[in-house]
Structures are given as C-alpha cells and as structure tokens.
Design goal:
Chain A: One of its GO terms (biological process) is transmembrane transport. Chain A: The chain crosses the membrane at residues 9-30, 95-119, 131-157, 279-301. Chain A: Residues 95-301 form the ABC transmembrane type-1 domain. The complex is a heterodimer of chains A (313) and B (260). With 313 residues, chain A is mainly α. Chain A folds into two domains: 4-73, no CATH class; 95-312, MetI-like (MetI-like fold, Orthogonal Bundle), CATH 1.10.3720. Chain A is 76% helix and 0% strand. Chain A has 14 helices and no strands. Chain A has helices at residues 4-29, 35-38, 45-54, 61-73, 87-122, 127-141, 144-158, 179-205, 208-215, 220-231, 233-258, 263-273, 276-304, 307-312. In chain A, helix 8 packs across helix 10. Chain A is flat. The termini of chain A are close together. By secondary structure, chain B is an all-alpha fold. Chain B has two domains: 1-56 and 211-245, no CATH class; 60-210, MetI-like (MetI-like fold). Chain B is 73% helix and 0% strand. Chain B is built from eleven helices and no strands. Chain B starts with a helix and ends with a helix. The chains are: A mainly alpha (313), B mainly alpha (260). The interface between A and B is large, with 44 and 44 residues.
Chain lengths: 313, 260
C-alpha cells in the first residue's frame, strides 16, 4: 500500500478533476446556453449563430472541453461575456484586495486565537475559561452580515469612527477601511480555532510529560511553549485549513457588505450578470484554494504526528 | 444563568416568527418610503413604503421554516446513509466515505452561488442545497457514532435471533448513537440558520421583494442612517435566534452529557 502522502495527493488529484469537470459542466446547466446571456430574447437567428460561433458553442462538447483545459494551462480563462475583457486579468486585479484582507485577518486572528486558546486551556473550567469560551461562541453564532451591519450602525454611522465602505478607496493608502471587515472575519473565525487550541493545550498540559517537566523544575513558559503547544499543533493545523475556507466564504459576504473590490464582490457581480466564464474563473480559484489548503494541512498534520502512520497500518 | 438567557433569546424570535404572520396584517406599500416611526406605523416604513412592524412580524417564518426543512432533509438522508456506511460491508463504507470526502471540500455558499448563476434559485433550491451540503458531515458523525455500538455482542445476538436489518440498525444501533448525533445537531442549527440567512442576504434565495428578515436587512442597509429600525430590529431577532439556539443546545446537551 502506498504511503499516506501519496494517497492524500491522489485524493487531491481526483478532487481537482471533479472541480474541473463540474466547472466546465456548469455551462450545460444553463437553460439555453451562454449565447442567451449575451443576446436578448428577440435576437435574429443569424445573430445567434454568429455569437455561438464566437463563443465556440457550435463545436462538440469534447472539443470545447479540450480547448478550455489547454487554455487553463496557459493561464487563459476565456473572456467575460459582459465586458469582453480577459477573465484572468480581472481575477488577478481583484486577488490582491482579497489576499490583503485575508492576510491582515490571519495576522490578527492567529495571535488572538493562541492567546485565548492557551489562556483558557491552561485554566480549564475556571472563570477566565468560561468567559472567554462563551464570548467566542456567541461571536461565532452571529452571521457575518448581521454582525457587520451592527458594527456599521454602532461605529460607522453614528460614531463616525471607522469608514463603513471601501468603495473607490485604495486599500493600502487608507488601511482604516479594513478595520470593520477584518473585525467581522476575526470574530466569526476565532471560536473554532481557539477551541482546538484550548482542547489540545488542556490535554497536553494535564498530561504526564508536562507534569514531569514541571517536577524537573522547568519554568512554566518553557513547558507551554516548547512542549504543550507543539503537542497540540496537529489538530490546530487542520482547523487552520477550515479557517481559510471560512475566510473565503466569509469574504464573499463581508466584501459585498463593505464594498471591498475583491474576489467576493467580483463573484457576486458575475453571478448577478450570469457571466459564465467569469464564474468559472472564480470557482476555479476558490476551489483551488480549498483543495490545496486541505492538502497542505493534512500533509503538515501528518508530519507533526508520524506515529499515526504506525497506528493506521 | 446562561441557560435562562438562551431560552429568552431563542423563544422571543421564535414567537415572532411563528405567531407573527397571524397578527401582522398587510405588507402592501402603505406610505412614503423610509418614513420615521409615527402615527399608524410604530416602527416607520421601509424603502418600499411597507409598514416595518408588519414586515418584521411576517418575515421570520421563512427563516425558521427553511432552516427546519433543510435540517430535516439533511438528517433524513444522512442518518440512513451513515448507518449503512457503519454496517458490515467494508467496500460500501470505503466507496461512500471517499465519495463524500470529495463533496465535503466545497464551501456551501459557493455551491448556492453557482446554482443561482445558472438560473436555479428560489426557496426550494435553497432548502435542498442547504440540506445537501450538510449531508456529508452528518453521515460522518452518524457513522463514527454507530461504529462502536454496531460491533457489540448485543448486535451479534440480534443477528443470531434472525432479527431484521431495520430492527438491528435502526432499533438498536441508531438509538445507541443518538447522543453524539444530537450534540452535532445542536451546533448544526446555528450553522444552517446562518447559511440560509446569508444566502437570502446575498440575493441567492428569495426574491428581493420578500419580507424575509435577511432580504429586508439587505434591501434597507443603505437606509441605515435614515431609518435604523428596519435594519436593527430584524438583525436583533436574527442574532437572538442564532445565539439562543447555540446557548440552548449547549446547556441542554451539556446537561445530558453530565448525567448520562
């Protein structure tokens, strides 16, 4: 039997294949076909034929799939049905805004989750633990758009503290527009990540190894940093993959709420316009991040717990 | 303390959602759009000139109904499939779980967006998709919970007695697996509630003239400054519903765990 990394890579390859076929098959889901998006209902049959030829819809399905796949490898995602601009360019432009949003969110989220998780995990069942856990659970329960609107109502409209929209603003020139979107994303994702860290820390801190090290007189911070946290890291890495997924979906809602010109707003716009090539591009990017993120998380978690291999065989 | 708070947070929006449509009255436009609270309209009017009180009273039923329907469907499909996966056939288990591994990878809101883009939107699509994306996770939980009880001596005894598949797996194994599955269901309520509301907020479900809380919040969010009540009241009800469901599930199931 092949080793775990090989099997895991195989799963990702099959997942990637399913994504490609499903994304291409999306055009088949359309009532009518893509030419009906470009033309009105009253278009003459000759016009329909011209548009169908331009979009390559008059060729057989297998030929179109081949063209589409070979285009993907050269970075050609087709052209938008609405603006006729290359899809790859549009997505590349928007990628920067979403990457910035996700990056800043992770920079805030990771230390905060570590702090909350370690603080509550080391004192499991104490008042600190109960308060921190309750707050995280409450924040997690509220949908992003409700939390965002409540923040806008409280801090942006009446308080005037932070801008409520990023429309037409250069994100790097005015970073304060990111405050509210990042707050919403962090609030929503904090719970799951902190909970994983808390469980791991509580378990390893109460374990025999940590107890023995404390008896040997090792200072508490060394016990926690060098032994408890590394021991708790494998499930946390896997949770991190879920977090990245959550950030992607959250970004769709948060970006359209705060008008951040990122992948999320682009995706929503493309859906509203039924701009199939654009939607296919966005789906590929989102699904690619999810598949690769899960693969990376599983492989790293596997490296962190090599004993699992022996148990599973 | 948190249990009482949870029940209050949950019951108030539930009462509004289920009882509201009976007392709401007409939601046809009655006055100027975004009028402040005044005579005849205790909460003012929304951007379409509808009475906000009537809209809020009528708009919770879809939120609660869709969530309940999606959860019912997800467990209706997920529990039997999970039991089959946990059964004797190793091949069936492998095929089912590998297949679900593939589906588990895709974020649910994205699936809804793709469906909406290809002209598949509306209440039915929303409920079925919200249910379908939960099925892999439900199957996983049911399978994991049913594996151990399915290997007990009692099951062998039931086989030797010649009991039916239904009697053994639903009557005995499923009942033993109920605890973990109920815990999972508690957390899944808030998850599905959030998904259904977010989808309606993004315009992927109900039409934009609907009185659904999430749709109303979306339509009126630009008028937050002029007419805050129309956004804040449904928002507060949604928060109560989500947080209350979470707290109640936690305290009820937590109590069950301690005693049982």
């Amino acid at each position: 039997m092949p080793g775990y990394p090989a099997r895991r890579l195989g799963l990702s390859a099959v997942q990637a294949l399913v994504v490609l076929v499903a994304t291409f098959g999306m055009t088949a889901l359309l009532p009518g076909d893509a030419s009906s998006v470009v033309l009105t209902e009253h278009a003459a049959p000759e016009d329909v034929a011209v548009v169908r030829a331009r979009l390559g819809l008059d060729q057989p399905l297998t030929v179109r799939f081949g063209h589409w796949i070979s285009g993907l490898f050269t970075g050609d995602l087709g052209e938008s049905l609405v603006t006729a601009l290359p899809v790859a360019e549009e997505i590349g432009r928007r990628l920067a805004a979403t990457a910035l949003l996700a990056g800043v969110t992770l920079l805030v989220l990771l230390p905060l989750a570590l702090l909350v998780g370690v603080a509550s995990g080391l004192r499991e069942g104490s008042r600190v633990d109960r308060v921190l856990t309750s707050v995280a659970v409450l924040l997690h329960a509220v949908p992003e758009f409700v939390l965002g609107l409540l923040l806008v109502a409280g801090l942006a409209v009446h308080g005037g503290l932070f801008p409520a929209t990023a429309a037409g603003v250069d994100l790097l020139a005015r970073p304060e527009v990111l405050v509210l979107p990042v707050t919403v994303l962090v609030a929503r994702q904090l719970c799951d990540l902190a909970r994983q860290i808390r469980i791991g820390v509580a378990e390893h801190s109460a374990g025999e190894v940590a107890g023995h090290l404390r008896l040997l007189g090792l200072p508490e911070h060394a016990v926690v940093l060098r032994h408890v946290l590394p021991g708790a890291s494998a499930p946390v890495v896997q949770q991190l993959a879920r977090t990245v997924e959550g950030l992607l979906t959250g970004a769709v809602v948060v970006e359209s709420l705060f008008a951040v010109p990122g992948l999320g707003t682009g995706f929503v716009e493309a859906v509203q316009n039924r701009d199939i090539p654009q939607i296919q591009g966005y789906v590929l990017v989102f699904a690619g991040v999810v598949v690769l993120g899960n693969l990376a998380a599983d492989l790293v978690a596997h490296r962190l717990t090599p004993r699992r291999e022996l148990v599973l065989r | 303390m948190s249990r009482a708070l949870g029940w209050v947070l949950l019951v108030v929006p539930l009462l509004v959602a289920l009882g509201g449509p009976l007392v709401a009255g007409s939601v046809d436009p009655v006055g100027a759009p975004s009028a402040p609270p005044g005579a005849g309209h205790p909460l003012g009017t929304d951007v379409l000139g509808r009475d906000v009180l009537a809209v809020v009273l009528s708009g919770g039923l879809s939120v609660v109904g869709f969530t309940a329907a999606a959860l019912g469907l997800a467990y209706g499909v997920g529990v039997p499939v999970g039991l089959v996966a946990a059964g004797q056939r190793r091949v069936v288990d492998e095929v089912l779980m590998r297949g679900l591994d593939l589906v588990l990878a895709f974020p649910s809101l994205l699936v809804l967006m793709v469906l909406a883009a290809t002209g598949h939107r509306g209440a039915v699509v929303l409920v079925f998709t919200a249910a379908a994306v939960q099925v892999p996770a439900v199957v996983r939980v049911v399978r994991a919970a049913a594996l151990a009880p399915g290997c007990r001596v009692a099951v062998e005894a039931l086989y030797l007695q010649g009991q039916s598949w239904w009697r053994i797996h639903v009557g005995y194994v499923a009942r033993s697996a109920l605890g973990p599955v109920a815990t999972d269901a508690g957390t899944r309520v808030a998850l599905v509630l959030g998904l259904v509301a977010s989808a309606n907020f993004l315009g992927l479900g109900l039409p934009s003239g609907s009185v659904d809380w999430a749709v109303v919040i979306d339509r009126n969010s630009d008028a937050l400054d002029a007419q805050p009540a129309v956004v804040l009241v449904p928002s507060a009800l949604l928060v109560g519903l989500c947080v209350g469901a979470n707290l109640v599930a936690d305290s009820v199931l937590g109590r069950g765990r301690r005693t049982g």
